[in-house]
Write a structure and sequence with these properties.
Layout: E1 2-7, H1 15-28, E2 34-38, H2 51-54, H3 57-64, H4 67-77, E3 82-86, H5 93-99, E4 104-106, H6 107-115, E5 122-126, H7 132-141, E6 148-153, H8 160-166, H9 170-186, E7 191-194, H10 197-205, E8 210-211, E9 214-216, H11 221-237, H12 252-257
Parallel strand pairs: 1-2, 1-3, 3-4, 5-6, 5-7, 7-9
Antiparallel strand pairs: 8-9
Helix pairs in contact: 4-5
Length: 262
């Protein structure tokens, strides 16, 4: 089993996150599963944080145009069994699924669908206000409004660069996360999802897996195991994305004229 995890950050500028993710893979994935952790090109965010871009649909789409689809295509060509879009904003999810036959995993979609098997009401805790639109849209597109108690932002809100620094002292941030989660629990949430990659990784490192009897999901590990499951289902049963309506695949002739590339 080979899984490609495509981050939306340039990993050269996030060494603590990269190291933490590698340890996480080793702890969660079974022996023999190959994990490839890929970042975006180092100049993608022009020295800023992704949060400085994602509030503007034009800037965010422009910055990642071609990266996700090109790497999804490369992953399939190199024999990977699944492609994980390693961002809770899930950029270019529909485009990637329409391009390749291997499963393409959205982290928010995977965690929420799994969460529905564990709780009637789910609470999402995210990085900052810039992520709220994406999560709200994902909830709506999956018709899960009735299963989500709410979305809370950890305060004080940080950006990705601040979160890289927080790896050195995760206790303070985890305390703020707990406060946000408790607000959701008071609203009826019986499962909490750390709904952003860096948030999930810091919470995981701090060992926070339960609050007042409510499970705090592993927001990185669950999508990886979900990817492995869908990879096996594709290989063993032929399960793939629907091609009639939402994820129409380009013809081989069209793909030659418009090949995926950065």
């Amino acid at each position: 089993m080979k899984i490609w995890h495509q981050s939306s950050v340039d990993l050269e500028n996030y060494p603590q996150y990269r190291i933490s993710m590698q340890r996480h893979y080793d702890a969660v994935m079974p022996p023999g599963t190959e994990m490839h952790f890929q970042g975006v090109p180092v100049d993608t965010w022009a020295g800023l944080s992704p949060s400085d871009f994602i509030a503007s649909p034009y800037l965010y789409q422009k910055s990642l145009a071609g990266v996700m689809t090109a790497n999804a295509h490369q992953a399939e060509q190199e024999g990977f069994d699944a492609f994980v879009i390693g961002s809770y904003t899930a950029p270019f999810l529909r485009e990637c699924r329409s391009l390749v036959d291997i499963p393409v995993i959205s982290m928010p979609e995977a965690t929420m669908l799994v969460g529905c098997s564990m709780a009637q009401k789910i609470g999402l805790v995210t990085l900052n206000d810039e992520n709220l639109w994406f999560l709200t849209n994902m909830i709506s597109s999956n018709k899960l409004e009735g299963r989500v108690a709410g979305i809370e932002v950890v305060t004080p809100a940080l950006d990705e660069k601040d979160m890289e620094v927080a790896f050195a002292n995760p206790g303070e941030y985890t305390g703020h996360f707990r406060v946000a989660a408790e607000r959701l629990i008071a609203k009826g949430a019986d499962l909490i999802i750390p709904a952003e990659g860096l948030v999930a990784e810091i919470v995981y490192n701090a060992g926070l897996s339960e609050i007042d009897g409510v499970c705090v999901m592993d927001g990185v590990g669950v999508p990886l195991v979900y990817a492995e499951m869908l990879g096996h289902l594709y290989r063993r049963t032929g399960l793939h994305a629907g091609r009639r309506w939402h994820y129409v695949k380009p013809s081989a002739e069209a793909l030659l004229l418009f090949p995926p590339r950065d």
